[in-house]
Amino acid sequence: MDGDLTRILYTVSVWVAPLLIAITLHEAAHGWVAWRLGDDTAKRLGRVTFNPFAHIDRFGTILLPALLLLLKSPFLFGYAKPVPVNFARLHEPRRDMVWVALAGPGINLAIAFVSALALHLLPLFPGEAQEWVFYNLRNSILINVLLAVFNMIPLPPLDGGRVAVGLLPDRLAFPLARLERYGILILLGLLILLPLLGGAVGLDLDIFRQVLHPLVDGVTGLLMRGAGFG
After folding, report:
1. Pairwise CA distance, residues 27 & 58, whole Å
2. Which of 6, 79, 109, 230 has the fewest CB atoms within 10 Å around its CB?
3. Largest CA distance in the chain
4. pLDDT tens digits for range 50-61
5. Where's the Peptidase M50 domain (predicted)?
């Protein structure tokens, strides 16, 4: 029993810090860029902060991932509390919306790259500490690349959807923007329900495995090569 508890605590210790850093800086980056571009809504509400508790959503960050783990779902999904942005207060709302949206995935890629560079420092740590630091850095790379790629799916309210709305011509942007209220439901359907239905009829409809997983692997490979590995 003690051994099981030790393994659980060790596993938690190498996942929690990378996850909290990833979601905290992701959301804070949205708020900071919005503030610099004219909208101080997030700043006034205390969301431009490194305090993870300001960004944690009890359901999306804790309960939903835990439920999916218990159900042994092939896809682990979760989200933080969205940073409030009043796009009308931005200097150039259509253009600046794109920069605000890109800030989150951008900071995640930067964290992943810094984590990859930090792998070069592993020889400075003693035996067991070296292993613990390695797993934290490895998980940081995985979590941050996954967050960046996932959030760039071109479906509002994900960041990629906001980017698409800001860049597409009006005849395409307006219908896409109207999907925002249904975006999370559509996403859950595509990534969780569709594979389950496909499995029931003998079809491989796992979009995550077929599309997102190769993208995550490709981006991770580029970052690792850029950091001097491979």
Report:
1. 15
2. 230
3. 61
4. 888 888 888 777
5. 141-190
At residue 104's C-alpha, the angle toward residues 102 and 106, to 5°, is 65
92 as an active site residue: the answer is no
- For residue 136, which of 115, 105, 167, 152 has the smallest C-alpha distance? 115
DSSP codes, the chain: -HHHHHHHHHHHHHHHHHHHHHHHHHHHHHHHHHHHTT--HHHHTT-SSS-GGGT--IIIIIIHHHHHHHTT-SS-----PPPP--GGGSSSHHHHHHHHHHHHHHHHHHHHHHHHHHGGGGGGS-HHHHHHHHHHHHHHHHHHHHHHHHHTSSSTTSHHHHHHHHHS-HHHHHHHHTTGGGHHHHHHIIIIIHHHHHHHTT----HIIIIIHHHHHHHHHHHHHHTT--
